[in-house]
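Data availability (excerpt). The following record was deposited with the supplementary files.
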Amino acid sequence: MGDEAALRRRLSSSTGKGSPRRRALHLVAAASSRRAIRADPFSNAESHTTREGPMHDLSSLEAYPALELIHRSHPRLVERLARVQEDARDFAHRYVAPIALEVDARVAREPTYFPWEIVRRGAERGYLTFNLPRMVGGGGQTTLATSILLEELCAQCAGIANIFGAHALGLAPLLVGGYDMQKYYRFLQETVRGEREGNPVLWAFAITEPGAGSDIEDADEVNHIE
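Predicted structure:
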């Protein structure tokens, strides 16, 4: 603990190059990672899940030291995810935040209203094909990257974020369901083409029934698209 305290003092007084996050990763890792590797990586997580407000960078490293292991073993992955976060945060502040309250109010007045303009804005960023395979023209992003994207949108408006989240959920059965390749390409390329042409195609996962909710394994009815 003495070494870690000394590193903390160095960090707080440091005027060298690099962001606090970057310095934290290099300085604190030396003291905390050795202890973390030997122990359960999530042994200290419970005390942080009840915190009010976001954790400081150093606290997150202490609570989830596996993050440092990921950073050291897959630096390019972390860099790609950081770019996703930066782009999503810019989009959320630029387009979502200014209209969030207005959209809520209008939906309350007009239940059939849908904010297509924000969907078109998202399409310009590739958010409707974000997790589609590159071989059909999609972004080829991972579930982890999709989660980061949606988290940033949720920070400004969970309702608008859910438009893109529900769309990704609607695509999921097609991506993993073993459809024949002809239908696979037909529907996915329609989605890609709509995004590129400014006519977004949104997907939905029709799983709600009178006797069942989101448990798709208990579904009673199955419809096939021809």
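Summary of structural features: Residues 2-73 form one domain.
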